[in-house]
Amino acid sequence: MDYVIPPPPPPAVPVAEGGLFPVRRVFCIGRNYAEHAREMGHDPDREPPFYFLKPADALTASPTIPYPPSTGDLHPEVELVVALGRGGAAIAEADALGHVWGYGVGLDMTRRDLQAEAKRLGRPWAPGKAFDASAPIGPLAPAARIGHPAAGAITLEVNGETRQRGDLSEMIWPVPALIAALSAHCALAPGDLVFTGTPAGVGPVGRGDRLAGAVEGVGRVEVVVA
Ligand code: MN
Fold it and tell me: What percent of the chain has a predicted confidence (pLDDT) above 70?
């Protein structure tokens, strides 16, 4: 059978050592750092992990991203990104890291005004979270080189000024627990990415701003809002 329209190019993310990591789905975890949950008005002690999705073609390794339409309140959220090399359903926490191919640093770009409206109206978060170029990501680092980071600084600088600062050890649900929880809901697959949540300090950015996210021992993502 032939495709009736040209098939889209397969989404992929560059690997630091060269080559491309093919992406299947992009899962994003909400409120995984207590201080960020509190700054958004939620009690972190009372919530199990939850997730939303971005389309895989929202990923971008471009040095620039457009300021998106339909918002006046664009926020970057710096996040550790987990890249799965093996899939599975109902993965045990003790086995979870064996499914991880590597790690990267991503920005969960958020139209905060649209997200707030969706929360108020009880609607899905898609308009606030899933839009073109809403997932800038730096080159992936294989776990075979860097191991499985459970601690280390996670930071976002805007025009050289630190906006977000936290430590991976502050995750409410560490990576093995997130993989176990996600895989209890749906079978995970090779190529799936997991954005693991953001530390406190989120705020708006505008056109011309230089965003630099970093995770100690993992890498960086740098992008300018055009
Ligand atoms: Mn996020």
Answer: 100
